[in-house]
Amino acid sequence: MSDPTEHGLTRDEVAKVAALAMLELTDDELTTFTGQLAAVLEHAKDVEALDVADVPPTNHPYPLTNVFRVDDAAAVSVEDKERMRQAVLATAPEAEDQQFMVPPALGEEL
Amino acid sequence: MNQQNDTLENETPVSSTMLSAWTTESSVEREPQGLPDGWEMVIGLDVHAELATETKMFSPATNQFGGEPNTNIHPVCLGLPGTLPVVNGKAVELSIRVGLALNCTVQRCIFARKNYFYPDMPKDYQISQYDRPLNINGSIQLPSGHVVGVERAHMEEDTGKSTHVGDSGRIHDAGYSLVDYNRAGVPLLEIVSHPDIRGPEEAKAYAAELQAIVIAVGASDGKFEEGSMRVDANVSVRPAGSDELRTRCEIKNVNSLRSLGRAIQYEAQRHVDLYLAGDKPVQETRHWDEEGGRTRAGRSKEQAEDYRYFADPDLVPVDPSPQWIDEIRAALPALPRERRQALLDAGGDPENVAMAVQRNLDSLALVAVSAGAPIDKALVHIVNNLAVDGAEELNAEHFAALVTMESNGDLTSTQAKQVLGEMVESGRAPADLAAEHGFEAMDTSELDVLLDGIIADHPDEWQRFCDGENKLQGMFTGQIMKATQGKADGKVIAQLLASKKST
After folding, report:
1. In terms of CA atoms, which chain A residue is nearest residue B166?
2. How large is the ipTM?
3. Which of B110, B106, B77 is nearest to B94 (CA)?
């Protein structure tokens, strides 16, 4: 494992990324993951070094575009909707008034 | 202004009408600033419009407002493990329609995940578009002539709805929240303007024009009151005439055009007050408090990086072919701006014309005019008497016939209003309805005889009327109306009285 500071990645930055992902890391884990994340970035740097001038950019491994679904609200019976609702609500830790019950939401709606 | 220059330079397909509007910009009358001298507002609006599809953006669940909680749900919009989103082709088509109506360039685009933790989005990310949105570089010309640049109009999915349950019902005191996912995954188009707006009235005009456009192209029902159209306002102020962009605040929870205007006015004044006190605003999201008439600080505005956007690996790019775009463009209906112009060209009053188009009843006026009816009368009926359910289904030929009958004097304005109301309810022709009521033009000679009799019965009053006591006109008119059971035309009576008085 190379020294993380060589790659310009700090423990604080890793701690911030962890906080955004709502992960709680111990000091030891922070050290471990700072090193591992730095190694991933190092690998990305290797890829950047390749000459890809002739390779078209892509964001997906498959050469597919425009995969669409037909907009058709298949007639779902009231009974089926009710069955789906009860099945899903049954998986929730808590439910009330046919809705999912969650801890008080912090902040505001986005 | 700089933003507009940027827009034009960035390979925007500039139509000739847009360019002429831009070049005549200096002649456009802008609203006076409701701020202390020397300050101006800089406003950009983010408008979300729910698309009028049958199903959701990425799942086959029904897209419907107001269903029982959690009835329009599906494993995909609940983010259950093992599910995969599939794009609703109709939502893409509707988004392209709006993009073209806003003069945007429609381009190959991809979906991105916007990551955040909030129970209204069970996947813990919202599928949106980030660096490659569908529509870019557009514009909207307001009725005033001012052109507002549109930076982008991108596709995304709506979130669920949480209700906060607690002692006060206020967010921060809530004991717990209840979540309904009926709205989660409903297709949205987010239309982001450049900061080209300079005041509350202009902001309202922009939002109203955008609303009229999405309704006209059939992309959304555009209802502020049901939340199918929502506006967030980015507000900052600066010394008048400067081109700097100062710290902005994003105002949310604005539920009507009126609130939009009030919220912007309040927020801009708050910024000016801060600067005048030697302080400055901080960049943040603020919520409009309608009752209190003020904005309140919310969560500090997250930096874009904090959402850790990345391309969604579950979805392939959308790449509309030029042929598809051309087909959609060819099928676009006339836009509100052109429709207003058609009525203005026919001599309509601008305010009434705007209202007729907003109510989607302008075609009634056009048919009436082409049938030879006066536009003023047609528009007055549309504005005053057709703000009712079913008005859009009114037969245009029947409406034209009614306006013609009224302008020919076959019906009084009161009778015409009554017949119009019954036409909307029954779908019947005005001539039949008028005949049933016995609404027929009175022969003037008949009225003449009648009036002579009334004068003979009231010689003193007639003398005083002839001597200039004009209020007695009401008495004579009333007598004739009584004798004819209201069938006489008030205007004809007035003419008759005037001519008799002078002889």
Report:
1. A104
2. 0.82
3. B106
